[in-house]
Amino acid sequence: MIRAALPDPRAEALRGHVAMLAFSALVAGSFSLGALVANLIDPVSVTAVRFLWAAVVLAIFAFLMADRRDGRGRGFRLADFRAPWRFVVLGSLFAGYFVLMFEGLKTADPVSAGAVFTLTPLMTAGFAWYWLGQRLDAWVAGALAIGAAGAVWVIFRADWQALMGFQIGRGEAVYFIGCVLHAAFTPLLRRFNRGEPALVVTALVMGAGCVLLVLVGWQGLRTVDWAALSWLVWVTMAYLAIFASALTFFLLQYATQRLPSSKVMAYTYLTPAWIILWEIGLGHGAPGLLLLPGVVLIVLALVMLLRKD
């Protein structure tokens, strides 16, 4: 009898790290591309289209991955639609995050916005402690604090006077509110889950968010001249829906099966570094050297979290 070879733990972990590298790079792209089109289309409209496309793609994946023989990787079931208020709450938080992200990117520098995003794990830890009773150990807390310090350095552009006077840009302030919604979304996603597969939940959250955005922004959606939109807007919306939503979801699920949660969370801190590369690739140049200490602190936080386990 031939036994199937057991997977190599190191090889599986390496694949998880590669997945998260790709995940963080794709997420970073949404900042650079989003900044290019933020002033070309209403934030609610672009987010509604993104959620619609992402919900359809994820729903198709849910059906295609269903294994009718043993029930694993199943598609949708009637029980998944019980207590739909959960998806309304989660969809409103997720939709609010992306709308405020695009609103913030109208004026915020993409690198600064990426630095604001690195504050999300620290805020998520606070919400997780309050709602789920999860506590951080000293090492993880220290890493999050160092990462937050680096983020603050970048957000205030190494300007001590701006920091002391709390002179934060309007775009960064708007996006920070969005990051608070994102931080609340993560622990609530776990608290509201009743055993549904992650793929099914994400598709339903995206669908609920799309419906809410259409209801709230119907007037704006009607006034958008969709035929006159530039190719850049359509490319960005397709990127956000397929690569920065559906594909990143798959990569995140793949990595969480192979890496500890602290290491998965650590890759959030790579976002500003990837954004810098995106900005250079798009011909926007590199940020000033004064921001380098903040980026170094953010990378140090990443290293600390990767070494945690």
Note down, in words, how this protein is organized:
- This protein is mainly alpha-helical and 309 residues long.
- The chain has one domain.
- Helices cover 72% and strands 0% of the residues.
- It has helices spanning 9-37, 43-64, 85-104, 110-117, 120-132, 138-155, 160-164, 170-192, 198-216, 218-223, 231-256, 261-266, 271-281, 292-307.
- Helix 1 (9-37) crosses helix 4 (110-117), helix 3 packs antiparallel against helix 8 and helix 5 (120-132) packs parallel to helix 8.
- The longest helix is centred in the N-terminal third of the chain and has 29 residues, at 9-37.
- The two termini are 37 Å apart.
Overview features:
309 residues; mainly alpha; 72% helix
DSSP summary: helix tally: 14
Percent of residues in helices comes to over 70%
Q: Please report the distance between the alpha carbons of the first and last residues.
A: 37 Å
Summed over residues and divided by their number, the pLDDT gives a mean of 84
Please compute the radius of gyration using only Cα atoms. Answer: 20 Å
Major sheet, described briefly? none
String of helices and strands: HHHHHHHHHHHHHH
SSE-based structural type? mainly alpha
Q: Give the DSSP E fraction (strand runs of 2 or more residues).
A: under 5%
Q: What's the total number of strands? A: 0
Structural domains: how many: 1
Based on Cα principal axes, name the global outline. globular
The residue ranges in which pLDDT falls below 50 over 5 or more consecutive positions are: none
